[in-house]
Structure prediction request, 90 residues.
Amino acid sequence: MTPPGILRHPVRVIAVTGGKGGVGKSSVAVNLATEFAALDQRTLLFDGDLGLANIDVLLGLTPRYSLAHFLAGERTLSEVTIQTSQGFRI
Prediction:
């Protein structure tokens, strides 16, 4: 039996980072997420830019809630993430 809080399956984390804005990090991240989803990999794309996150804009989505709602305890993680037509969650 797996102890509480321990994942049964390994989780792969890929970070797309850079020090300058406007170089295409978000585009690369969306394309990676799309490809992983196409390979039937459960995929969550997290935009860590809390001030100017734009993954939703790139995908033409309008999220109802934000990470701030989750951190404040107002919403669950599943409530603040949304499914994309590409097959992954943001």
The chain has a mean pLDDT of 90. The first helix runs from residue 25 to 38.
